[in-house]
Amino acid sequence: MEQYSQHLLTIEGRKKLKLEGVQHVGSFDEKEITLDTNMGFLRLKGEGMHITHLNLDEGSLVVEGFINGLEYMEGRTAKGSKRAKGLMNRLLK
């Protein structure tokens, strides 16, 4: 995976989120968006969320809507699989 040099997250009034360092968008709907960033897996939760800008070449994303929370998780990817589990499965084959 390509690494981006900067990871920057800005929230404006819980209604607009700007993120730099995005590598992959896994899933998105009005209540949840899952992402892989250069700092790990990120889950955004909210209401009426829409991705208004996405540029994976630059690693930038803008989400508008009401942001209720965000959570970084280690050992997980936005593709839905756990990295550690995938590694173990490959080693045991």
UniProtKB/TrEMBL annotation:
The superkingdom listed in its UniProt entry is Bacteria
Among InterPro entries, the record links this protein to: Spore_YabP (IPR012504), Spore_YabP/YqfC (IPR022476), YabP_sf (IPR038705)
- Give the record's GO biological process terms: sporulation resulting in formation of a cellular spore
Q: Where in this chain does the entry annotate a coiled-coil region? A: none
Q: Which Pfam families match?
A: YabP (PF07873)
List membrane-spanning regions.
none
Protein name (record): Sporulation protein YabP
